């Protein structure tokens, strides 16, 4: 790739779309010292509360960009979703895994999208190397022989166009993605005809910290309370009641909302009728352009996973693209983005459709059967756990991509984030603060002599933090060659017991790349080097801004 003579680096990355996914992606890249240009066709961030739920995995991703406290200030730490039967009686409460929270954050959290976008934009304004242009369209792009991309941008007001050179184009521009259209990428799936009316209100009396799904087949309804008296209501519209994109009359809104509260016209913050799609892009990469969020997949809202799936895309791609931009990884590693993310996104689309058919059915017979089955499942402890912890949700497991080593139950899965004790203070803290922003090699109750073999195998191949985990009720000891941690509340033991006596390579997105013994370390190190397309312990070209690489070490 051509290096800019003025900056000594490759051209910046173009992020198209300044919604939550685009702003999250830009923050993650900027946190890794990748310069970013963000363009958005609208003149400002959104003033519409489209997405309203952030899960614990997304909060963990925001924390990786240094934004955990920023985002936590604007959310309601939620307690899941309560489902009601056809007669509006409580059916079950899906609160997620019991505390302590496996990822270190509350399971499901309500928020207002305008507040989230504003917070993410403010964070970008404080980062060097980032430019955000509102009122700017992507008109065209063309890849150049030197490995750059020439993009044509247009001011939506003056209509004046400019041409710039970037290194990569990231399509975070929603369901009607310009990037996807210019790349000629299609989408496969189903468009649903059911019309739903969404009404965002203020001055509401609801104080529940959970969403409510009312499964009355006569009028399936969703109620989600928010901060400061906000509350969202969603109502299924029957034929002849509503048309997609048309704002209904206030009389219609009042009639539907009146079952839950009295309301005045001034208390309606937003009101629109919509339909939804269940589609996935046929491919997520075309040369030097990649798709994220709704540009790559769209799903029904019933599982609350649309935005969260987009944040997962950003978490998976950002560290890989940053490594490529800094010259540490080969470009082929970007192909693993689709390999790893598409299967889970497609499963989540199907799950969202299935959940809607069951929970929001208009069939009295199906609703009756649903209620009977759920109550039967709740008769056993295992059944109650299955429902309350939402174990019916798809779990991301990478069987291909940046994974290596012998088969293991933890390989390809996200590593939980328990609280750990770190000497000398022994003050409980989230595990991610120890793992750092890059790779980590974790030894689980291993012999010190084994660490020497592992360091020798990875030296010069993978720059990583070395973390020695002590299981059981023991005090961790300080060591010069690695960080030593112990269990703070029992969660670390539960998470890592299957790997006792072994080592893990944990990726920057907290997925486990490999579980192996000291004797298998050399083979795993070689395989990961091949997958990443270069030794991540060798210095990148002198023309880049990357931090000089070092061996496997604490804080590396």
Protein described:
The chain is an alpha+beta fold. Helix content is 28%, strand content 24%. The strands form six sheets. The chain has a seven-stranded mixed beta sheet with strand order 6-5-15-16-17-14-18, with helices on both faces. A hairpin with a 5-residue loop joins β5 (81-84) and β6 (90-94). Residues 537-556 have low confidence and may be disordered.
In short:
This protein is of the alpha+beta class. The protein contains 14 helices and 29 strands.
Based on the model shown, name its key terms.
globular; 556 residues; 7-stranded mixed sheet; alpha+beta; single chain; 14 helices; 29 strands; disordered C terminus
Topology, please?
Blueprint: E1 13-16, H1 20-31, E2 36-40, E3 53-55, H2 56-64, H3 68-72, E4 76-77, E5 81-84, E6 90-94, E7 108-110, H4 113-125, E8 130-134, E9 136-143, E10 149-155, E11 161-166, E12 169-171, H5 178-183, E13 187-191, E14 195-201, E15 211-214, E16 221-225, E17 231-237, H6 250-257, E18 268-274, E19 277-281, E20 285-286, E21 289-291, E22 297-298, H7 306-325, H8 335-359, H9 364-377, H10 381-388, E23 419-421, E24 429-430, H11 432-435, E25 439-444, H12 448-458, E26 464-470, E27 483-487, H13 491-496, E28 503-506, E29 512-516, H14 521-532
Parallel strand pairs: 1-2, 1-12, 2-8, 5-15, 12-21, 25-26, 26-27
Antiparallel strand pairs: 3-7, 4-7, 5-6, 9-10, 10-11, 13-19, 14-17, 14-18, 15-16, 16-17, 19-22, 20-21, 23-24, 23-27, 25-28, 28-29
């Amino acid at each position: 790739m051509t290096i800019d003579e003025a900056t000594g680096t490759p051209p910046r990355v173009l992020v198209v779309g300044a919604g939550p996914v685009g702003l999250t992606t830009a923050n993650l890249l900027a946190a890794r010292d990748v310069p970013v240009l963000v363009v958005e066709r609208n003149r400002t961030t959104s003033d519409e509360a489209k997405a309203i739920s952030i899960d614990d995995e997304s909060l963990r991703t925001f924390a990786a960009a240094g934004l955990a406290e920023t985002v936590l200030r604007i959310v309601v730490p939620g307690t899941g979703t309560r489902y009601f039967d056809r007669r509006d009686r409580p059916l079950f409460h899906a609160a997620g895994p019991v505390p302590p929270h496996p990822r270190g954050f509350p399971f499901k959290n309500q928020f207002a999208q305008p507040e989230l976008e504003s917070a993410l934009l403010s964070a970008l304004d404080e980062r060097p190397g980032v430019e955000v242009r509102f009122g700017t369209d992507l008109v065209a792009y063309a890849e150049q022989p030197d490995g750059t991309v020439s993009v044509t941008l247009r001011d939506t007001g003056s209509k004046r166009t400019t041409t710039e050179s970037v290194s990569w184009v990231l399509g975070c521009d929603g369901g009607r993605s310009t990037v996807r259209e210019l790349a000629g990428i299609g989408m496969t799936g189903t468009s649903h005809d059911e019309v739903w009316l969404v009404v965002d209100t203020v001055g509401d009396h609801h104080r529940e910290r959970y969403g409510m799904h009312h499964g009355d087949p006569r009028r399936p309804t969703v109620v989600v309370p928010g901060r400061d008296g906000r509350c969202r209501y969603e109502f299924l519209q029957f034929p002849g009641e509503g048309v997609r994109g048309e704002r209904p009359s206030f009389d219609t809104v009042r009639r539907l909302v009146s079952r839950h509260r009295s309301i005045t016209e001034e208390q309606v913050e937003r009101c629109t009728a919509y339909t939804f799609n269940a589609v996935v892009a046929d491919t997520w990469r075309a040369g030097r352009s990649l798709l994220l969020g709704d540009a790559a997949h769209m799903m029904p809202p019933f599982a609350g996973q649309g935005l969260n799936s987009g944040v997962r895309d950003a978490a998976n791609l950002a560290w890989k693209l940053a490594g490529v931009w800094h010259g540490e990884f080969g470009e082929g590693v970007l192909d693993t983005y689709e390999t790893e993310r598409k299967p889970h996104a497609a499963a989540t689309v199907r799950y969202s459709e299935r959940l809607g058919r069951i929970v929001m059915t208009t069939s009295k017979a199906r609703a009756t059967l649903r209620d009977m089955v759920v109550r039967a499942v709740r008769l056993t402890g295992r059944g109650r756990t299955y429902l309350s912890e939402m174990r019916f949700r798809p779990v991301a497991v990478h069987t291909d991509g940046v994974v290596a080593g012998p088969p293991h139950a933890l390989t390809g899965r996200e590593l939980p984030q328990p609280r750990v004790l770190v000497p000398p203070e022994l003050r409980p803290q989230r595990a991610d603060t120890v793992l750092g922003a890059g790779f980590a090699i974790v030894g689980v109750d291993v012999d010190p002599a084994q660490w020497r073999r592992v360091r020798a195998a990875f030296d010069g191949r993978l720059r990583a933090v070395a973390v020695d985990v002590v299981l059981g009720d023991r005090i961790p000891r300080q060591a010069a060659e690695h960080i030593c941690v112990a269990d703070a509340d029992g969660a670390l033991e539960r998470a890592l017991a299957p790997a006792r006596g072994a080592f893990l390579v944990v990726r920057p997105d907290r997925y486990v790349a490999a579980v192996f013994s000291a004797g298998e370390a050399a083979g795993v190190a070689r395989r990961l080097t091949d997958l990443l397309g270069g030794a991540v312990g060798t210095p990148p070209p002198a023309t880049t801004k990357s931090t000089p690489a070092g061996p496997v070490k604490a804080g590396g």
